[in-house]
Amino acid sequence: MNSNKQAAPAEVRGSDGDGCVPGRSPQGAECTAAALPDPSSHSAPEETPRRAPGPGGTTTTAAKPEPRKSNRTRRPALLTTALVATLALLALLSAGVGAYDIPLTDVLASVQHHLGLGGAPLDRVGESVLWNVRLPRVVLALLVGASLGCAGALMQGVFGNPLAEPGVIGISAGAAVGAVAAIGLGLSFFGNWTITVCAFVAGLITVSSVYLLSRNGGKTEVVTLILTGIAVNAFAGALIGLFVFFADSGQVNQITFWQLGSLAQATWPKVLAVLPCAVAGLLIAPFYARRLDLLALGERPARHLGIDVERLRLSLILVVALLTAAAVAVAGVITFIGLLVPHLLRMANGPGHRFLVPGSALAGAVVLVAGDLAARTLAQPAELPLGVLTALLGSPFFFWLLRRTRRKQGGWA
Asked: Is 156 buried (19+), middle (13-18) or exposed (0-12) by CB count in 10 A?
């Protein structure tokens, strides 16, 4: 009898949502009984799932959305943990591998000794190689890679264009012109900061020019962006060639270093010179993540949501110039890091900038530390230019991305 009472309401509500009319159903008597205010008939459907929840009951159905939320929050944490672990492993490996090999355990022991955490120092040659050659290079690769990766993510958000990157649209070459001008003209008005300041000013002028020239009708066009980058790169190359023509032999070697991109001349003073600019840009950038997500909806919706679009773009252009100048001032022109890294992270976690901006900094550091290790070891005893190596790997990816963008849009836009 209880089972009939419990089954009836489910059948009755399934007909029209308000109950059933007695006599129009084969179960007319049961419908009449179910319509009465019987406490047992009303409480049974609510109490049964709590007493005996089964795999097909209401409790299991209501709990289905929870794993989706946990997956959305768990994936960025897993990716961050994987990137940090990979970066730590690559840094230790890069510190030990080279013409003078240092075992990983000895590297850890020496680092612990210098931090006052125990361990033991290496011999005189090992300590000199590790602390005066390898570790400055590893730290510089980390800073430069993080700056370029973060700058690429910010530029793609600012321009609303997946093909924007400091090297592709000429900002790296423009910043290099400032650094080369400081070398060629023998400028030293800011001491160790002279090259960084000149690179920053030239990079800021370049990114502003690209931004103004690539906009048409309130949006940034892909073709205009790429053609502007080609023109800026050509003009910057002409200026660098002009400085090479008038430079002496010592200056020519330095200028060649800027053109090819390398971390071979890494020292602790160079790390300290670039550290404030890189850290400032990397700390400021994540605060714009939410506004970049709103800007991705379009300029008009972003304005309706309270975003000052022009002010946001101007602020982020300054941050991009700061990060790019910091990278170029110590490493020369290294391209495609800012293009490749954000796209790989979008494929892994989606387009949200809350993870994309700091994640691009971490992944950029991983890519450049690995690239510098490959540049030092693939052609021993010679060393491949790091900018050449990243261009060799990044150019096919850029071509694939260009074709993919054109195919998705049904033509150029």
From this structure: buried
How many C-beta atoms surround the C-beta of residue 216 within 10 A? 10
- Cα-to-chain-centroid distance, residue 75: 15
Q: How confident is the model at residue 12 (pLDDT cuts 50, 70, 90)?
A: very low
CA-based max dimension of the chain:
107
Q: Enumerate residues 6+ apart whose C-beta is below 8 A from 217.
A: none
As a whole number of angstroms, the distance between CA 71 and CA 68 comes to: 5
Cα dihedral: 157, 239, 246, 179 (round 10): -10
- In the three-class reduction of DSSP (H, G, I as helix; E, B as strand; rest coil), residue 216 is classed as strand
Listed in sequence order, the residues at least 6 apart from 348 whose beta carbon sits closer than 8 Å to its beta carbon are 75, 79
Residue 54 has pLDDT above 60, yes or no: no
Query: Whole-angstrom Cα distance, residue 319 to residue 202?
Result: 14
For 218-263, the DSSP string reads: TEE-HHHHHHHHHHHHHHHHHHHHHHHHHS-HHHHHHHHHHHH---
Query: Is residue 75 pLDDT above 90, yes or no?
Result: no
- Distance, in Å, from the CA atom of 20 to the CA atom of 206, rounded to the nearest integer, reads 75
- Does the pLDDT at position 365 exceed 70? yes
Q: Is the pLDDT of residue 35 over 80?
A: no
Q: What is the pTM of this model?
A: 0.76
Q: What confidence score (pLDDT) does residue 144 get?
A: 94
State the sign of the Cα–Cα–Cα–Cα dihedral 344, 346, 352, 355.
Answer: negative
Sequence-separated (6 or more) residues with CB below 8 Å from residue 290: 353, 354
pLDDT above 50: residue 302: yes
Q: Which pair of tokens denotes residue 365?
A: 């550091």
3-state secondary structure (DSSP) of residue 170: coil
Beta carbons of 136 and 268 less than 8 angstroms apart: yes
DSSP 97: -
Q: Which residue has the tokens 């790019």?
A: 324
d(CA 359, CA 295): 19
Could you tell me if 53 and 62 are in contact, meaning their C-beta atoms sit under 8 angstroms apart?
Answer: no
Check whether 80 has a pLDDT greater than 80: yes
Give SS3 for 372.
Answer: helix
Q: Which residues have a Cβ under 8 Å from the Cβ of 92 and sit 6 or more positions away?
A: 104, 107, 108
For CA atoms 185, 188, 192, 196, the dihedral sign is negative
Nearest to 265 by CA among 100, 390, 144, 126: 144
- Tracing tokens 């989706």 back to the chain, one arrives at 68
Residue 216 has φ and ψ, to the nearest 5°, of: -150, 120
